[in-house]
Structure formats: C-alpha cells, structure tokens
Amino acid sequence: MTERHEPKHEAPRETARAEKASNEKASKSGGLLPGILKGLATTAKTATQRTHTHEYPDVAPDLPPRSRGVIALLEENCTSCMLCARECPDWCIYIDSHKETIPATTEGGRDRQRNVLDRFAIDFSLCMYCGICIEVCPFDALFWSPQFEYAETDIRDLLHEKDRLGGWMETVPPPPALDERAAEPAEVTAANKPPRAARAPREPGAARETRAPREPRTPREPRAPRERPT
Ligand code: SF4
Ligand code: SF4
Fold this sequence. Notes:
Elements (H helix, E strand, L loop, with lengths): L9 H19 L4 H15 L22 E4 L9 H5 L5 E10 L9 E12 L8 H5 L5 E4 L13 E2 L1 H6 L18 H7 L38
C-alpha cells in the first residue's frame, strides 16, 4: 500500500491564486460595483414579471384540458375485445372476462352470446402514457383524465382495478367542439338522406319490361400495315 503525501500549503496557495484571478477580472471590468448594479437591475426587472410557478399543493396547477394524467374506463362501453391489452407496448393492461348467453327475445330466434368484463386493471408503475390503448379502443371505453394525484408510497399500489379506473370518468373533460368548417360526418349524412321512392307493385301475371335490343356494332376498318424504314 502506498501512502499519499499531500503538500500542506496546497490549499492556501490555491485560494490565493483564485483571489488574484478574481481581482484581475474585477479590475479589468471596472470593479465590483457594475456587476452588483447589473445583478440588482435583473432582480428588479424579474420581480415585476408574472411568475410561471404555482405553490403546489396550496395552489392547484393550471393544466391544459387534454393533459395525460390517468386513464379512465367507461365500463359499459368495454366489450372485452382485448385490443388495448394486445397493443399495449408495456403489457400492463390485465383483462379477464367470461361469456354469457342471452336467450332469444323472439320465438324461433337464436340465443346470443356476450362478453362480461370480470377484471380490467392497468399497472401505472409500468404504463408509459403513450395513449395507444385509448387510440385503438374501437368502442370509446378509455379516456385521458388530467387527474394526476395518485402517487403511492408502495409501487404495488399503482395497479389500479376497474372500479378505480371507472371513478376517474368524472374528471374526464368533455370533447372539444367540432370545427365549423369540417365536413359533415358520414353517419349524419346517411341519416339525413331522404328515403327512396317505393316502386309500384307489379300486376300479377304482367310480363317484365324488356329492354330494347342493342344495335349491332359496326366492325372497325382494318389498320394499314406500317411501312418499314429502309
Ligand atoms: S398508455 Fe400506453 S403503456 Fe399505458 S396502458 Fe395504454 S398502451 Fe399501455
Ligand atoms: S377498453 Fe376498448 S379495446 Fe380494451 S377491451 Fe375494452 S373495448 Fe376492447
């Protein structure tokens, strides 16, 4: 083992050197006073400006309405299609469901089957807030909520079940108004279309209307053979 010998007078020498450099710099710029005045001017200027910080948690932050705080679930819309769970890059959505038979409502009709959601959970300790699950859901069952106050002291408590996810639906802001100049949605156009005029029923035994036979096509003139370049 080698012992390290440090010179005893190294630290005072360093301090003296730094002081000398500082004095030289101050003398070059005309002394300490201009620097102090400049600092005071900056302080006075910024003191009158509006602050961009809030004293959270006493003052709630003013978040944009479409902030990605937490994912809310509208359970009635979920069909347990598993699309969100399959597309999630972190595999942090857990869904359990079972099939239920709904008896036919009309005589001779067929029974129907539907999925019943047993479990829908998101592990927010894994979620990276990419929003893919919300984008791919074909039944509008998932929404962004700006709610962000759900920090936990134990990471395991960040696995949120469907009751908690459903509770956040209250905090989901309404969708923004449609653009006035946007084209009318195809569904609205189809709904506003006037119904087709009903055809008059055919007389029993009446012959079908026959189309007039087409004129036979006149045959084309044969093309003249091309002349070969000599
Ligand atoms: S936001 Fe992204 S990572 Fe989080 S649950 Fe949805 S798909 Fe998965
Ligand atoms: S939330 Fe949407 S995508 Fe996910 S299982 Fe339910 S219906 Fe399917």
